[in-house]
Amino acid sequence: MDSPILQVKNLTKIYGQNVIFQDISLDVNRGETIVIIGPSGTGKSTLLRCINLLTPANSGQIFLNGQEITTPEANEDRVRQQIGMVFQNFLLFNHLTALDNVMVGLTKVKKMPKARAREKALYELNRVGLSDRADHYPGQLSGGQQQRVGIARALAMDPSVMLFDEPTSALDPELIGEVLGVMETLAREHMTMLVVTHEMGFAREVANRIVFMEKGSIVEQGKPDDLFYRPQHERTREFLWKITELYGNKEEKHE
Amino acid sequence: MSDVPEFFLRFWPQLLQGAGITLLLTVQGLAAGLVLGLLSALARVYGNKFWRGLAVGYVELFRGTPLLVQLFLIYYGLPGLGITLSREWSAFLALGLNSGAYQAEYLRGSILAIGEGQMMAGRAIGMSKWRAIWEIVLPQALRLAIPAWANEPVSLLKSTAIVFLIAVPELMAVGKTIAARTYNPIGAYVTVALVYLAVVYLLDAFLKWAEARVKIPGFEAEGRKA
Amino acid sequence: MLQNFFSYILQGVSITIAVTLVALPAGLALGLGLALVNTYGGPWLKRLSAAYSLLMRGVPPVVLLFILYFILSGNVVNLTPFWAGSVSLGIISSAYQMEILRGALLSISGGQMTAARAIGMSRWQAIRNIILPQALRIAIPPWSNEASIVLKDSSLVYALGVPEILRRAQQLSATTQQPMLAFGAAALIYFVLVFLVNRGLDTLAEKTKLPTQAA
Question: DSSP letters of C97-159?
């Protein structure tokens, strides 16, 4: 087994007086899908943003492919090309078509020739099942379609790791499935993924490992079956009980 | 530039007088423009075809041509038609007519924003059309117009500076005199610019104060849309 | 005779247009730089650009025109009245264009920058490829208003002796003793020009509009 593709070591993030998370350490292995669960406001999203260097951490280190990316010498633009990010509210570029959204990173950042970038972008759009929507602007797509374009845009950069920040939270219930489906396919293709989500079904079915975070620290982590059926901590049990109740209610409502 | 403090000490009576005339021109033009603007806004929203056409023609003509051309038409052109006006009257007329065209647009926007519902409610309790306009629509529309309208005084004050070109002795004309007397045009006009800045600043502060005083709670949010 | 009369003023049209075509892009370039500095620059650059905007917009254009004209046609730089006047008008307009563009830049949500940075764009690449194309579209309607203001303000260079429309009208007024006709003709020409500028920019706004963008 080779070394972890992404290593987080003792990472701490403080906003003013607020400790967002403290002393987080996490190893992500190649091809692994890790799902981070936990109550809202426990710093899960901020953790992803710190890993992608969109927000600077206060202390600790992050290594990508064995290289530290938290040193001042690290080129953050180059680092971000290797880490794909999918946002809760999609954040597609509003003035670009679906195809151009996927292409723009290739042509402007990777300086790929237009024709090749186009081919690659079409391939990625096809991967998320949207090749027939290539010419549509974000405003002309449903939320689920927008999020799939968002995934294609991140995939196009050939990242070593994909970060998903609550990718289905902003979606209408009937559109969640299509996005989870794409993510499941990616997991099966052994894309390395770090997913923050409240979709427990997805976590149970797809994750190789589940990390439970609460109040800024990792409470416990393990294989889905262990965590769901034999949680070691009372807090994990409580959270799972609450969320499954919520989740169950939600499903009932939609039937 | 280094002469500027000296210019202030030497020419402050003239500068003060010029600023006074500038302010007077602004206030007069604003008042005339308000009357003209209100009339044409009402004509455009409620008038028949003739009055509507007249109002549209007036607003478009005066917004579509430079103020300086309008000033020259009035000062140099009207005598040809047997109407000879003094420099001051010409300046007043040009500024009032010009400002009226812009004010008409602010007021028309807010009248339209009040909507037909208020009008209908007024008519429903037996008011005539013009009574409903006067009692119901205008009191609301004028308040709604305030945020957008509040730009007009400063904008008009800045416009008054061009009337020195027909030798009205306002602030810019004082600058020209200082420039001629001292052979230092840059210093002279910078001095004048500083006086303008001060007057604009004071006018702006006054407008903000006045705007806060006439505000009706809960009304302002709608006002911005207008 | 009437024909000669009109054609003499019409010769000023090309100069009026030339003044506008120098002033407007100059003001755009300067205004865009200032808007970017004000939106994305450090605290000192922000303050400096805000002060510039406040000073320039607090003084009548004709006063600024005279100050800038005497600077630009003085000992250090010595431009012709046409160039000094046109560049001055551009500098004056830059403060107003800066405010238009600043408003447009601020109206683009911060998420667009985040998403651009997330695919590895540098700050500048994100501004150029993602923020600006959206902001410029939003800025077209208020900018087209500014364009017609600059066109109308170009009449101020009359005072510098540049033979544009108004100057020629004044010369005709003096030689023919027909001021009403001369200035009336000038007004008509300006009216048509302003109309054409507004129409042209409306078409541009229509053409660059995204299919999902409201009018």
Answer: HHHHHHHHHHHS-HHHHHHHHHTT--HHHHIIIIIHHHHHHHHHHHHHHHHHHHHHHGGGGGG
A70: tokens are 């938290």
Bridging pattern class, strands A6-15 and A18-28: antiparallel
Please enumerate in sequence order all residues whose Cβ is within 8 A of that of C104, keeping only pairs 6 or more positions apart, or say none: C135, C136, C138, C139, C142
| Closest CB to A80 among C112, C120, C133 | C120
3-class DSSP assignment, residue B126: coil
- The domain made up of A30-45+77-254 has a fold known as Rossmann fold (3.40.50)
Domains of chain A, residue spans = 30-45+77-254
A163: alpha, beta or left? (left if phi > 0; alpha if psi -120 to 50): beta
CA distance C8 to A224: 87
The domain spans of chain B are 4-225
What CATH homologous superfamily does C15-162 map to? MetI-like (1.10.3720.10)
Q: Kindly report the CATH class assigned to B4-225.
A: mainly alpha
Q: Which site among B75, B162, B195 would you substitute to test the C interface, given the most C Cβ atoms closer than 10 Å to its Cβ?
A: B162
pLDDT tens, B76-114? 999 988 899 999 999 999 999 999 999 999 999 999 988
**pTM of the predicted protein model:** 0.88
pLDDT digits 0-9 by tens, A182-193: 999 999 999 999
Q: Complex ipTM, two decimals?
A: 0.91
- Per-residue confidence band for B212, with pLDDT thresholds at 50, 70 and 90: confident
Which pLDDT band, with edges at 50, 70 and 90, does B1 fall under?
low
Instruction: Name subunits touching A (3+ CB pairs < 8 A).
Output: C
pLDDT per residue as tens digits for the range C96-106: 999 999 999 99
Rounded-to-integer distance, Cα C66 and Cα C80, Å: 14
Indicate the domain borders of chain C: 15-162
Beta-carbon pairs below 8 A across chains B and C:
101
Concatenate the DSSP letters of all residues of chain A into one string: -PPPSEEEEEEEEEETTEEEEEEEEEEE-TT-EEEEE--TTSSHHHHHHHHTTSS--SEEEEEETTEESSSTTS-HHHHHHHEEEE-TT----TTS-HHHHHHHIIIIIS---HHHHHHHHHHHHHHTT-GGGTT--GGGS-HHHHHHHHHHHHHHT--SEEEEESTTTTS-HHHHHHHHHHHHHHHHTT--EEEE-S-HHHHHHH-SEEEEEETTEEEEEE-HHHHHHS-SSHHHHHHHHHHHHHHHHHHHHH-
Retrieve residue B81's tokens: 């038609």
Q: Which amino acid is at C167?
A: R
- In angstroms, the separation between the Cα of residue C128 and the nearest Cα of chain A is 10
Residues of A in contact with C122 (CB under 8 A): 77
Q: How far apart are CA B208 and CA A68, in angstroms?
A: 55
Interatomic CA distance for residues A78 and A50, integer angstroms = 15
A56–chain C Cβ distance below 8 A for any pair: no
Beta strands A59-64 and A67-68 are antiparallel
User: Comparing C-alpha atoms, which of C90, C75, C205 is closest to residue C154?
Assistant: C90
**CA separation for the pair C187, C180 (Å, rounded):** 10
Which tokens in the block code for residue C204? 């541009």
Tens of pLDDT, residues B163-200: 999 999 999 999 999 999 999 999 999 999 999 999 99
